[in-house]
């Protein structure tokens, strides 16, 4: 999700356009005077809202849905490009390379919004069609800044798709997509996006089994000021995930509990719920089954998202914990069977492999934990 370190009139205008509101409706939405908003938009990057207005804008953006966030990023890239073009002179921007036309950019943006929704429901085939429609149509050299931004966003989403499908490393993998998207954002000079891709690459490192390396990468990103507080808290949580998978369960519990406190302070309910799931697995690994069962119940009852991939992760974690006690072994196998069916239904290959590994080592003292 998008974050803004300091709002100017330019970002405020981009948010209004992303929300598809008139100036008056935007004024009512924010609780800020119409004249104030008009001045922001008149002076754009030269006008910085006061501290109270900065907080109001932060809240308005944070409460927006994923499609609005994507429109905000696109509008901001478009407006920023317009400012550069105005200052540098439009003549300098006229080149002979054919560019996508304005309506194509709008269609591209709409398709990215649809792809985000499709990915949230694990409709991989449809999302892949939407993303390939554009990423295969243009080379970076054919695009201006707005087009390069849309291409980077498309390639990053393709990385998310391949990660969820379990294609982690290799020439046609999440790792390759994330690395390509990172290069494009570096070229555009968007450090926050570069750091987010660093975080995604660390996830891929963890999923490929390089747990110690992943933990070090997460530790660096947990204090990286380029990331939002939410992303830094996620990095801290994933330090604990990598530690727990590597058998350092007690240390993992302490790290995860710190991340949970950060999510509480940020009022990030869904992340907090996911953290309870991962903390439950760390307690399972440490042999604290009562705590593990209590925490997985909390995670299963408080999660906001009903995305299939998260449901599979929750059920896999629950089954994993149940397998740790002979008295609940049969219940655990049944839960894992249901999770495997759902994973197969949605093509969640990585989760299927995790379930298979857990079943194979059910009688052992330690078994791999699902992401």
TrEMBL record:
Name of the protein in its database record: Transcriptional regulator with XRE-family HTH domain
Sample GO molecular function, one term: DNA binding
Species in which this protein is naturally found: Streptomyces nymphaeiformis
Record InterPro entries: Cro/C1-type_HTH, Lambda_DNA-bd_dom_sf, TPR-like_helical_dom_sf
Coiled-coil region(s): none
Entries under CDD domains matching the protein: HTH_XRE
